Amino acid sequence: MSEKELRLQSSNSEVLKALGEQFNDPALKSSTRILILISLALNKKLRFVDLLLLTGLGKGSLSNHVDKLEAAGYVERRFLMTFRGPRVVVEVTQKGMAVYANFVKLVGQIRE
User: Fold this and answer.
1) pTM of the model
2) What are the structural domains, with CATH classification, of the chain?
3) Which helix or strand (DSSP H or E) is residue 5 part of?
4) Among the listed residues 76, 77, 68, the one whose alpha carbon sits nearest the alpha carbon of residue 28
5) In 3D, which of 66, 11, 76, 73 has the Cα closest to residue 36?
6) For helices 31-43 and 59-71, what crossing angle results, to 10°?
7) What is the pLDDT of residues 56-101, one digit of tens each?
């Protein structure tokens, strides 16, 4: 193995270790919660019904995932009154955006 390949392998190991540490957070141990966080980071906020369609989950299951993200401080749930009745909007917080930004940075550092 060449010196360059050894450096890349070492660099990737460090990046993967950092990703592993980020995913040690109990709120991020679910691919569904990671999908929700990424979707919210890209859109800033989504209606609960949009998240239902995106994830394919039932209301109770999605609510549990959002609860865990909210407890970790990554998202915030808001209840809005509309002419059609109450609506739930889920927004990403600054802490959630920081986690997303770190995730994107680390994934971008992985080399072949």
Assistant:
1) 0.83
2) 3-109 (1.10.10.10)
3) helix 3-22
4) 68
5) 66
6) 70
7) 999 999 999 999 999 999 999 999 998 988 899 999 999 999 999 9
